[in-house]
Amino acid sequence: MIALVVLCLVLLVCWFRRKRSRNDILNYPPGPKPWPIIGSLHLLGQHSSPFEAFTVLSRIYGNIFSINLGSTPCVVVNNLDLIKEVLITKGGDFDSRPDFIRFHMLFGGNRNNSLALCDWSDLQKTRRSIARTYCSPRFTSLQYDMVANVGTDEITTFLHEIQKLPVNTPINIKPLVLKACANMFTQYMCSTSFSYDDEEFRKVVRYFDEIFWEINQGYAVDFLPWLLPFYKNHMKKISHWSSEIRQFILGRIIDDHRATLDYNSPPRDFTDALLMHLEEDPNMNWQHIIFELEDFIGGHSAVGNLVMMTLVSLIQHPHVAKRVQKEVDEITANSRAPSLLDKSMMPYTEAVIWETLRKASSPIVPHVSSTDTELFGFNIPKGTMIFINNYDLNVSSDYWENPNEFIPERFLSASGNVVKPNHFIPFSTGKRTCIGQRLVQCFSFIILATLLQKYDLTAEGKIDVKPGCVAVPPDCFKVILSPRSS
Description:
- This protein is α+β, with helices and mostly antiparallel strands.
- About 50% of the residues lie in helices and about 5% in strands.
- The protein has a single domain, classed as CATH 1.10.630.10.
């Protein structure tokens, strides 16, 4: 009891000191008055998503406001001009990431092993440069052709596995979707794939999905690190997931590549390219290689979860599903499976994916100011966490007509081509934009077009998804697949 009282007194003293230091900053953005210890975390708890809370608070304090979350000083930006200022114009001032304990646990004790969660540096710039050719393939490139071939090959296996499941009854389709996505990534990036019955593969795909859900959640310990003892088991669990994934990648992928790598020939794939750079660049080491490969293979979880989110949209809006089916039937004439090369001729299907992303309002990973700087006349001290309220961009009537309705046509021009307005940035923008977004778009398109070609989709009961989150729980809703009669 004495120790608890002393801890509370220490935390109160720290809070009052921080409060005075913040008040001493001239032109600091306005915001709600924080409570001792917890700051304004209680305001976020009043909403189903913290980004909903940010939107409500912006109506009170303006499009840029400050908020203390636990002991962490934060600033929230809510409109397009401010967001571009943070991500583009002054991207160099806001290129760090939050120092959450969870992020360290997920990447071998150092979040800078991750491309998405690291602070910006020359090393990270080099790592992104290596990946760009493979993770952002140009439409006319050999890599894009490879993506198309990989997608077509894996879809055949995916359909074979789907056909083993009962029809017209609720089934858990997510594990199969994730396995298909994982094999697309490993085949494209590592020239290898795995049997859906491979127990190690199944376990690792599940762990990747758990981690994707984990990263899309918020926990009190992120902002109140003194709660860490209460999260001991949780931290141990996520560290175990990451360790198992790493061992799988090393033992089942990298070791085989090293044994057959020809340094005198062009790289066969992304894995070869990483291994070659390891030999050529003295600034790179084994940690950089294995974590970069893990990062990009893990991108399959984003694809699988986007597919599941889109299935929700199609189930909830049957007329949209019917129009997608009509489009795929017209392109394939029911004589072949759809392929990535059909994507440009199926704009409505692509628009459905974009509208799903808009409605999901996938949050952009927070940035942290790497220096003392200024933002629209307000002083921003070094170390301030910056939240990009992508939710407000995606659901505000300031940017969209009838924003609460699901209308894929909003992403189609009068001539029927896909168009994305400048204020739609689901993969962020600037130098820290998601480098793998093209693969997400390509592989999700192939899976969705194939499912809709073969099946009608329904579900039992109402499906609820979390706002401001593109992830669905690892154990989520079931889907009823009914073979199409025509």
